[in-house]
Amino acid sequence: MTASDAQAAVTAVWRHEAARLIAGLTRMTRDLGLAEDLAQDALVAALDQWPREGVPANPGAWLMAVAKRRAIDQFRREDTARRGADILGHELEDADRRDLADAVDHIEDDVLRLIFLTCHPALTPESRSALTLRLVGGLTTAEIANAFLVQDKSMGQRISRAKSTLARTGVSFEVPTGAEREARIADVMAVVYLIFNEGYAATAGDHWMRPELCLEALRLARLLAALLPGEPEVHGLQALLEIQASRPRARRGRDDEPVLLEAQDRRNWDQLLIGRGLAALDRAEATGKAVGPYVLQAAIAACHARARRAEDTDWLRIAELYDVVAEAYPSAVVEVNRAVAHGRAFDPAAGLAVLEPVSGDPALAGTALVPSVRGDLLERSGNHAAAATAFHEAAAATRNEDERRLLLRRAAKNSQPGV
Amino acid sequence: MRYMVFVKMREDVGEAPAALFEAMGAEMDAAFASGSMIDAGGLADTAQSTEIRLTAGDVITTNGPWAEAKEVAGGYSIIEARSHEEAVEGARRVIDLHKEHWPGWEGSVEIRQIRGGQES
Questions:
Q1: What distance in Å separates the CA atoms of residue B16 and residue A211, rounded to the nearest whole number?
Q2: What is the ipTM of this complex?
Q3: What is the model's pTM?
Q4: Where are the alpha helices (DSSP H) in chain B?
């Protein structure tokens, strides 16, 4: 095996094992930074040994054994930490015995504990994403920096700051229980959703999608659903992301311009991911527990995903679902979406009736959202002059060049006599 | 990147030991949970398969079994990996489990990247 083969093999093993390795070491050392250092030391040892001896049969166990040995060595070397070494030594032996007895359950607890730490509310949202991708996703700092379009160095600083914040604030390493648990699960889901959206609707950079971030978020959502199978919202999040991730190929036009949902060529939707998304939605509903925003959004996404042609979309069901969302989580953006759904499910006047009350909402001021939806509804109702005015207003408000061109085209179409 | 992985073996090897089923089940659960495995399935034996072949302008339909074939695909999985090496590492474990739980078994795992899709 050549050095570069070994490097590739070690990187691949790291991706498979990072979360479990760091999670197990965090339980034993109660120190996230130390756990990561130990895991990295084990990787360096692998880079040295594997080219000569080949990849071991169980690479994860090999890395864990090396890391544990280093942990004990290190604590023994430090005189001042002699007492700590004794404690750690006992803990490691206990851990070894437990690993043999109930390895699977234990690993799941460890990884869940790690995710709760990397998504801890003591950290800023940016730090939560970065730390989660680093320690749970097994990405390198350079990969994360690249994905978020920042310098390697500043991403490295952000990650080490996050680790020292956790150490300094003395956060609990236990999986939260009771009322706190609900809130912390919501925090974790928000991190995964944020990573996905950063990839799906890239807010910066030359490309308006970064699929690698979507893929990482999807993996995290699947992991979370396996770790918390009794939580409907976790399945809802997975369902929502699987269905949204099925569309990137159809979302890009010939010249890389965005294509709206109804105009997408549905043959380019990834049916494998849609199938997985619908199955996750079924699992959410099968828990029989009260659902929240992710399940509702997933149920709406599923209505689109089930329709093989845009005209087959079950708008009545979508309108019902938006009514529920608006009742439970009222916001101006939800009202605009509800207006679209009512406009399709019933008639344009029904959509306009929902839209008008939020047209002056400060949350939407200066955006193209309200005027573009109003233009669409007016066009459908045959009021072309008013539609043209609305599309002009929307075109003046948008900051996206592709969208502006599209809106001006629709304005021009409605200005022609006899349309 | 998305990969299709085939497990290939002689067809006359008999039933897999229960221990292998169990170990493979646990490995696949872990792979599904970690998000890397998207789909997987076992294939029925070639006695229930059909080949339609075009040769020199003739279309010939042949039903299995493929007695003359050395190795046939017995199962497949579709995995998502960020590199070829990562896909290989996942597939290598399948061979390791066969080695551990099915003494004397011989066969192979073939890892093929699926073109197109989301690898931009």
A1: 39
A2: 0.75
A3: 0.84
A4: 18-34, 84-101
